[in-house]
């Protein structure tokens, strides 16, 4: 059986700018691939090609075994797409929006109404079904937009920054909806500007920079690629920080950092460093309220792979 999504050597140019420079993408059925990258990296361009909205200048791509160029109409019947901004008709009600999409997908009016009612209930929009979409909050519009992409029960769903602009609570709601889709067997390609979103949802992550793939692995695998782990120490007495810093300099692989006023962190080469540091703290008679060893965060992996720093971030996150 072919993968749900397969792309080989995709190239896309806009004038003298190469948006995609021969990328390969594979997503197995029922899995979530997170696609990360800085602004202008090529994430949305890749989604638009896979959704048949753009034609590639080179390479091939298939969805459920169907060629996105030569079998575009058939591909569109297999996919759902939610873009960065809600694309609902503000002058229609929530129900009318979904029924219209259903009819465009060749559902009968009755079938479209039944499916719309199911989705409105699933996305907690039943009470607002008769209201014009222009009266919806941003979170409600996003949920309605996601509902619209699911009317035809697509096997593959593209979510291009689906939680942009949502507050944390509404973002969590969308995450829960995505997890339900995956349990139902839907394949999802997710681009996101929130690194914790990819960490929470994706089975695998592809990092794109300047139109090329620079890394691909599971979230945990990517964290290991950066190398080493991070040891964090929070002394009980803040006046002990200078002594803790001196100690960490001896056992870390780089200069210790101070992410909080009472916390020090340092990269270490192996898990055995924690045992060594615990013994050294005891020998120095330094008590601690917190001591932990962790893999790098996905944020740290992203900065390491792309060469970006936190000051380069967009207001909503690093991977827009």
UniProtKB/TrEMBL annotation:
What's a GO biological-process term for it?
daunorubicin transport
Q: Supply one GO CC term from the record.
A: plasma membrane
Against InterPro entries, the record matches this protein to: AAA+_ATPase, ABC_transporter-like_ATP-bd, ABC_transporter-like_CS, ABC_transporter_ATP-binding, DrrA, DrrA1/2-like_C, P-loop_NTPase
Principal location class = membrane
- Record localization: Cell membrane
Keyword Membrane present in the record's keywords: the answer is: yes
Q: Give the GO molecular function terms.
A: ATP binding; ATP hydrolysis activity
Pfam family for this entry, one = DrrA1-3_C
Domain ABC transporter: residue ranges: 5-235
How does this protein sit in the membrane?
Peripheral membrane protein
Q: Which UniProt keywords apply?
A: Antibiotic resistance, ATP-binding, Cell membrane, Membrane, Nucleotide-binding, Translocase, Transport
Q: What family classification does the UniProt entry report for this protein?
A: Belongs to the ABC transporter superfamily. Drug exporter-1 (DrugE1) (TC 3.A.1.105) family.
| Entry protein name | ATP-binding cassette domain-containing protein
